[in-house]
Design goal:
The structure holds two protein chains of two kinds. By secondary structure, chain A is α/β, with parallel strands linked by helices. Chain A contains 15 helices and nine strands. Chain A folds into two domains: 6-192, 3-Layer(aba) Sandwich (Rossmann fold); 214-460, no CATH class. In chain A, a hairpin with a 5-residue loop joins strand 8 and strand 9. Chain A starts with 5 loop residues before the first strand and ends with a helix. Chain B has helices spanning 3-8, 14-27, 32-40, 45-49, 54-68, 70-105, 116-139, 142-149, 152-175, 178-231, 246-256, 258-261, 273-278, 292-295, 299-331, 337-346, 351-361, 389-392, 397-408, 426-429, 450-462, 493-503; strands spanning 114-115, 236-237, 383-388, 415-420, 437-443, 469-474, 508-510. The longest helix of chain B is centred in the middle third of the chain and has 54 residues, at 178-231. Chain B contains 22 helices and seven strands. Helix content of chain B is 62%, strand content 6%. In chain B, strands 4-3-5-6-7 form a five-stranded parallel β-sheet, with helices on both faces. Chain B has a two-stranded parallel sheet with strand order 1-2. Classes of the chains: A alpha/beta, B alpha/beta. Chain A binds chain B through residues 12-14, 31, 33, 35-41, 62-68, 71, 95-97, 99, 121-122, 124-126, 128-129, and chain B through 166, 170, 173-174, 177-179, 181-182, 388, 390-391, 393-394, 422-423, 443, 445-447, 449-451, 454, 476, 489, 492, 494-495.
Chain lengths: 461, 515
């Protein structure tokens, strides 16, 4: 027997009940349709924090006979608290009342009610009958306004009616609700029945912890996959130079595919972290994230602006120069570091979006070794990081009720990735990690990775 | 015959009706504006406005449509052809079954003669009995026929079938999506509509095909018998364990042969007493002692029996069926919803649709109150408009009557609002005046639910089955100036159309589909 709070989402057909359930339970397996009558049976969905179910939401079919049901309820007032049970017993064999019996069934379990309406339309006697039925059940209940359009002419009349019939009223758009909106609604649910407050408080606490865990896991995934992208290279051996050009192209193609695979694996993992199971979730064609990593548009829209790029280039160049200073036992007084920084800044500004450097080495026993990658562009780490971050942000705020997938990122001229807003300190954290990876020092990678994870967790929270 | 009378009796053939239904089905997926423009251009408006015969007008429309649209011609032709081929296949199958069954029954290996009693029972007696039963059905008073047809057995079968159907529907409903369920409901509704509209005609068409098959069954049996007699040596005899005398058998034979005995008498059309006695088989004695003449005397009796009790009744029923098909076509009511919509389309841009279009195309300030050019009619039958009392509370009744009056180009005094409570219609319907029209109002901004379905059905039960019910959808008023809107919300239009289709009532129409 479950002891967690249970909420039944009730309303007229096609008011968005299933969407609300999908978003609140963070479950995209809930069947949603734009045409009425999709849900014909009760469906239970647990909102989980980790593996623990903390709240149960029940998706119900819409009212089919509100006025007849209300008439029956009024006629059988003497039945008192057993009215719902008797109604179900009386009508359960009547196919006409199948939906009405189903939607009232959760009340027998002591479920709270979330009555969903689209307040952009006028209220009708049917709505009044539905609200009156719910009032007569005497269950703790909240009215949820799920606005389907911007029409507000009828909102006041709805609110007046809600105040008469419900303990609480909230507006909740299942299609656009982000994580804070969901938590806010759960907080509000405490007010409809005091008995549920401890359980709901615990549930919210667990959900917050779970969210933090998800953010940390995502930040960790970004750092891991960024490291893989920075290290990514392909090489092959040739007996003679004649086929070199062809082989180079093949290697470039392979390199590109390897990077794509890294991104794909990252996306799968991120979706898994946030419980988005629907495989059809794909980015729209016009999204910047569906552009090729090395496309003109990606390099224009993501990564750093010119000023930041100069700083980042300087930071990366200074790192290399500092290496030379250390090698000279410090007698250069940081001259190499300064020159490196200046060169780095200049090269970062002018270096294009070449796929990757191609290295050809002649082997001592004859033949050639061709290597494509890793990419040494100063912009590349930031572009890759932005792509990871944008996708993670997109997924972490995903309303599970959404049927479409779109990322609105504005025009292509301005920098749109999160990194474009970073200050020098934040850029330093990234460049430190990039340098560590390029140097291949395990301890440095670990330390810089930790710092970068903290930065990313802050962005994702 | 006068011209109007000629028009009233415009003859529709089965192929025409098939083509008509195909044309309507094709138009069902077209935009109203496109259809209106196309049909208004056909030039039958004068006939419609002068109250011409609907049968004739629609027949002319069909002729034009078939001329205009070769694909429609092909579709209608293929449906008619399929029906015809189905009939031919049935007849062919009947012939083969008759031929096969009779050949099997006429198997003879020289040991024991063919048993006349068995052949007679299957190929003559059984068919004669069936013919008698059919005749009784034909001449039985309608009340009796309905009692037998819809009696306890029918009710029991219906109960069983309904139970099975509901269970299957519930099971399938769990697998299908909402949209698929709706489509299935539409298909079921279309079937109900077809049965309701064409049930009588289909019954007689099927009857004709079955009679043709039965006729050919008899042809097959007769062919097998004649072939066996002409091209092989067959012996016919009769046998029984009972103590039955030859005289009794002869008496029965003479009785059966009465219809043809005036043409082919004793010894030719049926065996005489000595032949009957001489063809009795006693198995322990064998057939060596029996005379060949006596053993071959029966074939004429059997052949004429098939002609008289098999072929002739079937021919009569076939002709009777054909006549009934014609009668059903003559009776076919073109006052159904689909034909009504078509008649509206034939008018050149009637004011109500112009007004509707203006309102839809304009900004929020515009309403269908935009001045209609045509004056409101202040005579003729009125319209009784049913509205749930609870819904009526949300509207100003005078404004509602005015809006509805404009929709039908009637003065508001001719629009009578009738309010019903709790979905019960029986009491408020009462007696309709002659030609009084009926409408029912619903709100379009909510999808239809079971309660709506029950209200429509309750209204239908309170009315005659052929009274047209117009379902009018109320829209959301666009501003303070507009008290009532008859522009349905687009969001649920498809669902409301599907709802009307799924009810399967051929005399229910969506009056303002917002197209």
């Amino acid at each position: 027997m479950k002891t967690i709070p249970i909420f039944a989402i009730i309303g007229h057909p096609n008011e968005g009940k299933s969407s609300i359930v999908a978003t609140l339970a963070q479950d995209d397996s809930v069947a949603i349709s734009s045409s009425p009558g999709e849900t014909v049976q009760l469906q239970r969905f647990d909102l989980k924090a980790g593996h623990e179910a903390v709240i149960e939401f029940i998706d119900t079919p819409g009212f089919q006979n509100p006025q007849t049901t209300l008439a029956w309820f009024r006629k059988n007032e003497a039945l008192g608290e057993t009215r719902v049970q008797r109604f179900i017993e009386t009508h359960r064999k009547d196919p006409d009342f199948h939906h009405d019996c189903e939607l009232l069934r959760p009340l027998l379990q002591g479920a709270g009610l979330l009555y969903v309406v689209d307040a952009s339309r006028p209220m009708t006697p049917v709505d009044v009958a539905e609200m009156e039925i719910l009032r007569l059940t005497a269950c703790p209940r909240m009215a949820l306004i799920n606005p389907k359009s911007g029409e507000t002419r009828f909102l006041e009349s709805w609110k007046t009616a809600f105040r008469q019939h419900f303990n609480s009223v909230r507006t909740f758009n299942a299609q656009t609700a982000r994580y804070p909106d969901r938590i806010e609604l759960l907080e509000a649910l405490k007010s409809i029945d005091q008995d549920w407050e401890p359980a709901l408080s615990r549930a919210i606490e667990l959900l917050r912890l779970d969210r933090k865990r998800a953010v940390d896991r995502t930040a960790e995934a970004i750092v891991d996959y960024l490291e893989q992208a920075l290290r990514c290279s392909c090489s092959s051996f040739l007996d003679k130079e004649s086929g070199g050009e062809l082989e180079r192209r093949r290697l470039e193609d392979e390199y590109r595919k390897k990077l794509e695979k890294i991104e794909r694996r990252f996306r799968d993992e991120t979706r898994d972290i946030y419980g988005i199971r629907r495989v059809s979730v794909e980015l729209p064609k016009n999204s910047i994230l569906s552009e090729d990593l090395f496309s003109e548009r990606t390099w224009q829209a993501l990564g750093l602006n010119q000023k930041q790029l100069a700083i980042a280039g300087a930071l990366l160049g200074a790192g290399i120069g500092a290496g030379a200073d250390i090698a000279a036992a410090g007698i250069t007084f940081g001259v190499f570091a300064s020159i490196g920084a200046a060169l780095g800044a200049g090269s970062a500004l002018w270096k294009g979006k070449d796929l990757a450097r191609v290295k050809i080495s002649h082997l001592p026993l004859g033949g050639l070794k061709l290597t494509v990658g890793p990419n040494v562009s100063d912009r590349f780490p930031f572009i890759q990081l932005d792509r990871f971050l944008l996708y993670a942000l997109f997924i972490s705020n995903w309303a599970h009720a959404r049927q479409e997938t779109s990322v609105k990122l504005g025009g292509g001229e301005v920098k749109q990735g999160p990194s474009s807003a970073w200050k020098q300190d934040e850029l330093k954290r990234v460049t430190r990690f990039v340098r560590a990876v390029r140097k291949g020092n395990g301890e440095e990678i670990e330390a810089a990775g930790r710092e970068l994870r903290q930065l990313l967790a802050g962005v994702l929270s | 015959m006068s011209k109007p009378e000629k028009q009233r009796r415009a003859r529709w053939r089965l192929d025409d009706l098939i083509a008509y239904e195909c044309a309507l089905a094709k138009d069902d997926h077209e935009e109203w504006a496109v259809l209106r423009e196309r049909d208004a251009a056909i030039g039958l408006a004068a006939g419609v406005e002068s109250g011409g015969s609907r049968r004739w007008i629609l027949r002319q429309w069909l002729r034009k449509r078939l001329e205009q649209d070769s694909s429609l011609q092909r579709v209608a032709g293929s449906v008619s052809q399929s029906l015809s081929v189905a009939g031919q296949l049935l007849a062919g199958a009947g012939f083969l079954v008759g031929l096969g069954a009779a050949t099997a029954a006429l198997a003879y290996n020289g040991q024991a003669p063919i048993n006349v009693s068995a052949f007679f029972s299957v190929f003559i007696l059984l068919q004669a009995l069936l013919a008698v039963v059919l005749l009784l059905v034909f001449f039985m008073p309608r009340r009796w026929r309905e009692f037998f047809a819809f009696g306890p057995l029918f009710r029991f079968l219906r109960w069983i079938l309904e139970g099975a159907f509901n269970r299957i529907q519930a099971m399938v409903g769990r697998i299908l999506t909402g949209e698929q369920r709706q489509e299935a409901a539409e298909v079921a509704g279309s079937a109900r509509r077809a049965v309701s509209l064409h049930g009588s005609l289909s019954k007689w068409v099927a009857f004709v095909k079955i009679q043709a098959a039965a006729l050919f069954f008899n042809f097959g049996a007769l062919a097998a018998l004649l072939f066996a007699v002409v091209f092989s040596d067959r012996a016919f005899g009769w046998q029984t364990t009972l103590q039955v005398s030859g005289e009794s058998v002869h008496f029965l034979v003479r009785l059966v042969a009465l219809p043809w005995s005036w043409l082919y008498g004793e010894g030719v059309g049926y065996p005489d007493l000595s032949q009957v006695q001489g063809s009795r088989i006693v198995l322990k004695e064998g057939i060596q002692t029996l005379q060949s003449g006596n053993l071959s005397a029966w074939w004429g009796f059997l052949a004429l029996g098939i002609v008289c009790y098999g072929i002739l009744p079937r021919l009569v029923f076939y002709v009777l069926g054909k006549w009934q098909v014609r009668a059903a076509l003559r009776r076919f009511d073109f006052g159904n919803a689909a034909s009504e919509r078509l008649m509206e389309r034939l008018l050149p841009r009637s004011s109500r649709f112009v007004a509707e279009e203006v309102a839809q195309g304009s900004g929020p300030g515009a309403t269908e109150d935009s001045p209609p050019d045509q004056p409101l009619v202040e005579s003729g039958p009125g319209i009784r408009c049913f509205c749930a009392a609870e819904l009526a509370e949300s509207f100003d009744h005078d404004a509602l009557r005015q809006a509805l009056g404009r929709l039908w180009r009637k003065h508001e005094a001719f629009v009578k609002l009738v309010f019903y409570e709790g979905g019960r219609m029986d009491a408020p319907v009462g007696e309709l005046r002659e030609n009084e029209q009926v409408a029912i109002l619903f709100e379009s901004w909510m999808p239809p639910i079971r309660e709506h379905d029950r209200q429509v059905k309750s209204l239908r039960n309170a009315l005659e089955p052929h009274v047209l019910i117009k379902l009018v959808l109320l829209g959301i008023p666009q501003g303070e100036d507009e008290a009532v809107s008859l522009r349905p919300e687009r969001q649920y239009l498809k669902t409301w159309k599907s709802f009307v289709r799924s009810i399967g009532d051929p005399y229910l129409m969506l009056e303002n589909p917002g197209e």
